[in-house]
Amino acid sequence: MDCVVTGGNVKVLAKAIHSLSRIGDELYVEPQEDGLSLRSVNSSRSAYACFLFAPLFFSRYTIPSGHTFRCKMAIKSVQAVFRSLASLEKTVEKCDIVLDEQKNRLTFTLHCKHGLLKTHNLSFQDSESLQAVFDKDSYANVFRSHPRLLVDTVVHFPPSLEEVTVSVSDERMWVRNHVEEEDQSKAMLTELCLASDEFDHFAVRIHNSVTFCLKELRGLLVFAESTGLPISMYFDEPGSPVVLSVTDSVLEGNFVLATLSDDPNHRKNNSRRALTPPPPADDFMNDDIDSYLIAMDTSMAPGPSATGPPTPPLADSTCSKQPAAANNRTRLHSEEEEEEDDTADSSKPPNKKFCSLFFGSVIPPSPQMSTQPVTNQEVLASDSEDDV
Amino acid sequence: MKLLLILSPGVVTTISKLTKMCVLRLTPDNLFFVLSGKVANGGVSMWCELSQANFFDEYQMEGVSSEDNEICLEVTPENLSRALKTVQNAKTVKVKLTKKHCPCLTIAAELPTMSSINRVVTHDVPVDVIPRRLWHEFKEPNMPDFDVSIYLPPLKTIKNVVDRMKNLSNFLVMEANLNGEMNLKIETDLVSVTTHFKDLGNPPWGDDASQDGGPSQSRDPEAMAQARVDIRKLQQFLVGQQVNPSKAMCNIVHERVVHLILLHEDVSLQYFIPAVA
């Protein structure tokens, strides 16, 4: 892999890494045919973020030929490369990202003014592909606005606030701080009402409200505000994730945040709605057995790279260092099961094996995951404590 | 009880630095933020008076009865301050006493937007309504019969001195005389530090002083009255000062209490720090 980023794009890349650092502790790097993908997921798997920088974003973009390369590394060390955003803009002219497969190093070289070179050699770990399963296009409610609107909205909430609730009607959006019921008598409640014409796009099919973590939204705002890209927000019922995305001709960013599923009768709504239009990924979401609400596809060949070389050689080369080559086959098998499951009735309980395989390579299967907590998953685990 | 008012954040922010909880007392003409000297808050008490006419375009209130036309609420100034800060650029701000999930001061603001419809933000700050039988705890404290009254040097200067002294000691001695001199001292086993201020001037407390005849005329102008106070209490007071007052004064009752008075155009703030042995 050899990528060269020049000019203002260095700052864009830096901002993306900074906003990913609000999500999790590790950065997943995957050079793909359609661009460089940078991803992160939080420890409780309730938030996932992905940036895809198209080849055109770079002045040079070459990826390892013949096999897929994926790795993960501590996001802090990557952040350190782009530590000072202010000086970055003034001094850095070019950034090279080069993979040295012999030494297992990812090298970031910053070409600064006056011929100064800053080289960071970062070690990495092999990793599986990290891919959240979501289909934002099937979502009922879609909004788009300039980031300023959301920045002006979140400013009303204290930095310590963990979750906000967003409710919509045909004409309005309300943003409230979410308060646990037992704290309600003491807590200060803040509500902001936005009119639909403050948005560039405001499409509501279902009047409902979702509750999600504010911290990750703030992370995206850091990126969106500096690039000035409009933010799109997609959401559906409580319990299915909210997707926030920014898109440009050369980059795409998606933040997928779990929402609280509050009410048992939403479950009913879920299945009823899911059956009417048949969006496969949505069905998958409804059946999600993961207690943290975002389905993570950790299988070998997620959507984008599936268009690349055929699967078997691809899988072989990636896993050559891992002793569990047999695992490979089962994982591929799990994909088939996914497809089966997509077509299956959404109210049917999912295969437990399917679940643990899906997560097997990333986190150890826990008893909690093999149960089906969809209806009683009251709280998305907020990981703010870990990160602050 | 009815209440509708419109408020600026500066004062409340100042108060939020001084105390976690305080009492907001409302009368037809004034608002008071009151902290009564309880052991729990280190014996510090505070009395802040705002004239409603200077803050509100519209002010409606109706107390418990026509004789006791007052409302007494326990509030968290920090919440109030945060709410008021986020609505600083608002076109209008309304503060109302409401009954929601609990009694609340509801702060509603219309924010300027490009849209034809206003962006509206509301903050519900929970309050406790204080029953009338407890009101007597929140009356204006009497002006202490002080030994020395003196104008303070700029608060920022004092703050710089106190911040540094705090690293050395937990207690600070404030002393002043009628000759316009004030000293801030710390004394520890290892070090003694004194900062001297002079030519500060002594306020002329005439007949309008609440005590009999002001500092006694016979007092030796050079004689210092002093009080040893918890340095954190003084620091808290200094941190909170966001605006320079038009007048800042300090009254010292020898070895009893330090009484600080700040006069802004439309606000007065009194702060009492008890002396410790």
β-sheet strand percentage of chain B: 35-45%
Oligomeric state of the chains in view? heterodimer
The tally of domains of chain B stands at 2
CATH topology of the largest domain in chain A: Proliferating Cell Nuclear Antigen
Q: What is the mean pLDDT of chain B?
A: 83
Find the CATH topology of the largest domain in chain B: Proliferating Cell Nuclear Antigen
Largest sheet of chain B: 9 strands, antiparallel
Q: Enumerate how many helices of chain B there are, as a single number.
A: 5
Distance between the termini of chain A: 34 Å
Structural class category of chain A: alpha+beta
In short:
Chain B: Residues 201-222 are annotated as: Disordered. The complex is a heterodimer of chains A (388) and B (277). Chain A has 388 residues and is α+β, with helices and mostly antiparallel strands.
Explained architecture:
- The complex is a heterodimer of chains A (388) and B (277).
- Chain A is α+β, with helices and mostly antiparallel strands.
- Chain A has 3 domains: 128 residues, Proliferating Cell Nuclear Antigen, CATH 3.70.10.10; 125 residues, Proliferating Cell Nuclear Antigen (Box); 116 residues, no CATH class.
- Helix content of chain A is 30%, strand content 30%.
- Chain A has 13 helices and 21 strands.
- In chain A, the strands form 4 sheets. In chain A, strands 10-6-2-3-4-20-19-18-12-16 form a 10-stranded antiparallel beta sheet.
- The longest helix of chain A is centred in the last third of the chain and has 19 residues.
- The two termini of chain A are 34 Å apart.
- Chain B is 16% helix and 39% strand.
- Chain B contains 5 helices and 18 strands.
- In chain B, the strands form 3 sheets. In chain B, strands 10-6-2-3-4-18-17-16-11 form a 9-stranded antiparallel beta sheet. In chain B, strands 5-1-7-8-9 form a 5-stranded antiparallel beta sheet, covered by helices on one side.
- The N and C termini of chain B lie far apart (45 Å).
- The interface between A and B is medium-sized, with 18 and 24 residues.
